[in-house]
Write a structure and sequence with these properties.
Helices cover 25% and strands 25% of the residues. It contains 12 helices and 15 strands. Strands 1, 2, 3, 4, 5, 13, 14 and 15 form an 8-stranded mixed beta sheet that branches. Strands 6-7-8-9-10-11-12 form a 7-stranded parallel beta sheet. β13 and β14 form a beta hairpin. α3 packs parallel to α5. It binds zinc ion.
Length: 416
């Protein structure tokens, strides 16, 4: 057999691989074998009809926290991955030098890809914040040695620069993160938030190719008067990443940046214990928020596939459906209508469409349904979050009690 699996007739949107249109996707041995019109059904062990669906590369979420059981923010990706299309979950700073080995062990149990941004602070995000207040935690030499010894895992450096995370340390933790980034030739992702330090102090330090996450944070920016440092950073080639999270995304800031011709380069969730049950939920929901403010579906798919893969120089083929790439594939129904969505400040916008994930393949195999885990005891859920969690759990339980035919494909539907 030429293919183990053939996905037929879907509308393929693969900006990084150069595919667009109604095409079939042949998969063999966990890799994309061929993409084209009219591939031979008889040559496939299994055929899945994706007619009328949108088919994209498995999504790459540039900002997540998947070090559950060891950090304040960490979650298990399994309950979200299978029904969101996200096959690559970049862990953004959950671990530092002291905890990277334990993160490596945690990742081995995750059925998704997890490239890592090493926190410049050795303890990483074991606690909610404050990791860079004590500069003794930010040991540059140790971080460099840790990157060098873990090149298979670590693709960049993370520093959280806001007044809670750094206390009196100012931008020194960022300077150290940048020193590690320079020494190891990897990008630095900086989180911005409540000042001090201000974005006027933070952004000028960044190099082209470094990443500012929470780029449309309502806590870091004044939407009425964007700091000139924002324009300068954007023009210099600093990458803007959404990193929605529980506090990092404001519609009015994003709209001010769009009006100034500065759309984000990458769209990510910052999915963690306090954002996964709302207002973030998952990457497709975040993507809909970008559609709601006027970005196109092509732009948003690029910003969740090839753009994050390039930003971190992930292995060749990542974020694409190019022949030879891992067969990470997401299948969606595109629902048209008027979908009201909220940012972290309760500002609302209406999206003209949203993506409902129908199937998520990792290396050519469908991710199975998984029930959400109970929130950690220190995570305070709001009533709305509690209700969202309960309804999600009910929907998945209902799904698990009926036989799925075919056992995996196009069967991930559940109400939100
Ligand atoms: Zn984060």
């Amino acid at each position: 057999m030429r293919y183990d699996l053939l996905l037929t007739g879907g509308r393929v949107l693969d900006p990084g691989g150069g595919h667009a249109g109604v095409l079939d996707i042949g998969i063999r041995a966990g890799l994309i074998a061929e993409v084209g019109p009219g591939l031979r059904r008889e040559a496939a062990r299994e055929v899945v009809d994706a007619t009328g669906r949108l088919v994209t590369p498995g999504l790459v979420d540039l900002h997540t926290h998947v070090f559950g059981g060891a950090t304040y923010w960490g979650i298990d990706p399994a309950p979200v991955a299978w029904c969101s299309g996200v096959t690559t979950w970049v862990d953004a700073g959950s671990a530092g030098a002291y905890t990277l080995d334990a993160l490596r062990t945690a990742i081995a149990a995750h059925r998704v890809r997890v490239p890592v941004l090493l926190n410049v602070a050795g303890p990483g995000l074991a606690a909610a914040t404050g990791e860079a207040r004590d500069l003794d935690n930010c040991d540059t030499d140790l971080a460099i040695r840790t990157v060098e010894a873990n090149r298979d895992l670590v693709v960049g450096i993370k520093a959280r620069i806001d007044h809670n995370a750094v206390g009196g340390s100012g931008v020194e933790p960022l300077r150290r993160a940048l020193a590690v980034g320079r020494a190891c030739d990897v990008p630095v992702m900086v989180h911005i938030g409540v000042a001090p330090p201000t974005i006027g102090e933070v952004l000028p330090l960044l190099r082209p190719g470094d990443i500012v996450t929470h780029c449309a944070s309502g806590f870091a920016h004044d939407p009425a008067a964007l700091d000139p440092a924002v324009r300068a950073a954007y023009d210099r080639g600093v990458l803007f990443d959404v990193g929605h999270g529980a506090g990092g995304f404001a519609f009015d800031v994003l709209e001010a940046q769009l009006a100034a011709g500065m759309p984000p380069h990458t769209v990510s969730t910052d999915l963690h214990g306090r954002s996964q049950h709302g207002p973030v939920f998952d990457l497709p929901t975040t993507m809909a928020k970008l559609l709601a403010v006027g970005m196109s579906l092509d732009q948003v798919v690029a910003a969740t596939t090839i753009a994050p893969a390039r930003a971190l120089a992930l292995p060749a083929g990542s974020g694409t459906l190019r022949p030879g790439a891992p067969a990470d594939v997401a299948v969606f129904t595109v629902e048209k209508g008027a979908f009201e969505l909220a940012d972290v400040h309760g500002q609302r916008r209406t999206a003209p469409l949203r993506l409902r994930n129908e199937a998520t393949y990792l290396s050519g195999r469908p991710l199975p349904p998984a029930l959400p885990a109970a929130p950690a005891p220190w995570i305070p859920l709001t009533d709305a979050q509690r209700a969202a969690l309960a309804s999600r759990e009910r929907a998945i339980r209902a799904l698990l009690t009926v036989p799925l035919v075919p056992p995996h494909a196009l069967a991930n539907q559940f109400p939100r």
